[in-house]
Specification:
50% helix; 15 helices; mainly alpha; two-stranded antiparallel sheet; 307 residues
Amino acid sequence: MRGLIAVLAVVLTSAASAQTQVGGPVDPQRAERCAVRLGIALTGKSPSAALLSAANPQLEVDALLESDAFIERFARFINTTFNDTPGTNSIDDATYHLARHLLVNGKPWKDLFIGPYDVALVNGQVQVRDDVNGLGFYRSKAWLERYAGNEEDGVKLATAYRILNNTTGLKLNAAVQTPGADFSATGRQNGACRGCHFDGWFALDRVASVLTKKVQTGDTITFTAPTAGPQQLLGKTVSTDRELMNALVNSAAFDFRVCRLAFQFLYGRNELSCEGPLFDRCIDAFRAEGTMQAALAIVATDPSYCQ
């Protein structure tokens, strides 16, 4: 009899768990807590009356992810994450404008990095325009100038780092300037500098060498074609910024970055080791559908999110 009771307990527990996962009713108090959490996390606002009255608020996640409140909140989150400081003017925050455009129109998230767009100032207003020569927001004039850097010979190390950080989450600490240290192109090939600038998979100097070069005359900045020739990066032969960006968005590191962003947005932290299976499902969903909303939905609708 005890064995039978134990079996029944397991079956009933499993059934209750499955019911929650497929959208069955949940405990009213849990539902209310879940509605509050989803409303604040996804929209930055208290939940609506409809969300509070929902038997299972997680069934409303897709609708929340289409709301303007979510789109605005997430575009600002991405802009803050991808830039160390706010732009001086709205046009400087090209990341925000293009992220918002993609979310509103249901476009693939990779278009933020390789899509045929330009973010430009038109009659005093920031606009996202179709541009066959565009490369996400990376060829937008304001962004190019913002991260052009001041390295000798126009080598755009700042741009290279920002690209790698945005697409893969790479974080590096700048070397401390010390008297007599040689931070020229030649100096960076020696000692501790070489690991980050030439040997690592991110190899900042080699990444920068396939980007356009900065030319500054007075207050005017222009860009010329790269001259260093093809580089071996990410297991591929890369010659241009477009080839670099395509290699990055088609890498496993990019998929990982997307789902880490989903956890950071929803939880305010990175994923935990015990959340590995959920993280894997997030990556599978993103690879299948290609949108940031797909990645976020997997995490936000998991029963563990509203525990």
